[in-house]
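User: For my dataset I need records formatted as: sequence, then structure tokens, nothing else. Please produce one.
Assistant:
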Amino acid sequence: MRTQKVNKIMLWIIIGETFVYLLSLFNFGCAPPATSIESSKRVESIDSLMIKNLEAYKKSIDDEYQIGLMNYSNDQFREAVNHFQRVIQLDTIQYLKNVWCKIIDSYKKLELPDSALLYCEKGLEQHPQKIELLIQGAALHEKLENQERAIPYFQKLVKLIPHSPEYWKKLAGLFSQTDVEAAIQAYEVVFLLDSADTSAKKIQSELLRRTEDPTPVLERMVRIKRQNPGQRQAVFNLGQFYFIKGDYPNAEIEFREYLKIEPTDEIGREYLAASFQNQGKFDAAINVYLTILETNPHHLKSLCEIAYCLKKREDFEQAREYVIRAQKIDPDYALSNIVLGEIYQNAAEKCQKARERVLPDWDDKLIYQMAYDQYKVALNDSLFKDMAKNKIQTVARLIPTKEDWFMHPADRQAKLKCYEWIYQ
């Protein structure tokens, strides 16, 4: 209170002394006209007095602020808040803009997020474009789980800092809970700013799958590509959209075009290979995966996908070679277990069918058991757990029973010629 009174008195002194000097500039018949030099000196005196008093006014605010900072640095946040509040009350000319952030931080330290948010909103009323306050407000709303109220903060941030993928990604994440199409658009900006953000690509892929009516999204992507000819990310996004929606011929077209722009891009080549694969063009897919292995011989997914394509061509022996290469690099890579299990399962199915056997013989059951064992290993990976469970269900009735094992105590290797390659 004492500081407030002192500052009010100082302001009145400034006003009073200024008024006296202004009166002296005018002649009401009481004095001869002042010369231009005299008038100039009087104006300079007024300016000097105003500057002097303004500096004293600022100093009193600074003193209060410094006491608050000292309390803050000593973890005396309650006392710091009191001083920062007085600064806000005294600072009618908005001299110390950073005081708002300090009082917000103090309330956060006191674990009073609602109070922090209140001062954040008050600060933004006076400084609507202050980035630090927008960041604080967005973070506080997220902490209080006010997701929808956080969105306007990030919308303002991306307008003020349009080239920041961080804030676009935050905005996209918030939109994904309420407005899928807006989230997809925001992620498109993320990719334009940071094409290497693979986590954002995975999230957008899932959002595209959730899109009930893909037409508006497709039309916008086609328009963006048309407006940005040769823009790598626009082509990639459109190709990815077609792929996710199962339109593999158009995905192939877009990724062919993309790889003309970025011929060494690994992800683009993966998408092109997978587009071929999903159309049954296994030889073309293998050729693309082989180009990935030329530059990255430890690319596990390419090794396993080549194995998958060879399996589809019923070249089980060569398919297994590629899977084993992958398992030597990383024994815990669960996709290799899934593919190897499928190789054994499909080999058993083919051999059984060739003999026109409705039910599996002992040799067939041994190979189904090998498939079953691979699927069980894949259960340890959360990414492939559901797939492994489904595959286990398909072969569980085909593997040897306890009675089978009892009846064949010494037979642990299939003897049929169609299985010879497995033991070589």
